[in-house]
Amino acid sequence: MAKNEAASGTVKVRLVKGLRGSQAKHRLSVKALGLNKLNDVRELKDSPQVRGLINKVHYLVRVEE
């Protein structure tokens, strides 16, 4: 059960669009999420800070909860 509780407090983020042509601040936000290449996936702690970064670059990433 501890595994399910830990999984509910995380969010998976996948980079689905390239960074070419995007704003510099948005590129920095993607880097802050730990995403470097196309189709990179990171499992991050679900927090307001992470959600804010995801909302800023919503057109570049996909959330897989």
Descriptors:
about 60 residues; alpha+beta; Ribosomal Protein L30, Chain: A; 3 strands; about 40% helix; ribosomal protein; Ribo_uL30_ferredoxin-like_sf; structural constituent of ribosome; ribonucleoprotein; Ribosomal_uL30_ferredoxin-like
List the helices and strands and how they pair.
Layout: H1 2-8, E1 10-15, H2 24-32, E2 41-45, H3 48-56, E3 61-64
Antiparallel strand pairs: 1-2, 1-3
Pfam families: Ribosomal_L30
GO molecular function: structural constituent of ribosome
Family: Belongs to the universal ribosomal protein uL30 family.
Q: What would you call the shape? A: globular
Q: Which bin fits the share of residues in helices?
A: 25-40%
Rg (C-alpha, Å): 12 Å
Kindly report the average pLDDT value: 91
Number of domains: 1
CATH topology: Ribosomal Protein L30, Chain: A
Strand content: 15-25%
CATH C-level class is Alpha Beta
| Poorly predicted regions | none
Strand order of the largest sheet: 2-1-3
Rounded to the nearest angstrom, the distance between the terminal CA atoms is 18 Å
Query: Class by helix and strand content?
Result: alpha+beta
Largest β sheet strand count, sense and barrel closure: 3 strands, antiparallel
**Continuous helix count:** 3
From N to C, what is the helix and strand string?
HEHEHE
Number of strands: 3
Q: Which CATH architecture?
A: 2-Layer Sandwich
What is the H level of CATH, i.e. the homologous superfamily? Ribosomal protein L30/L7
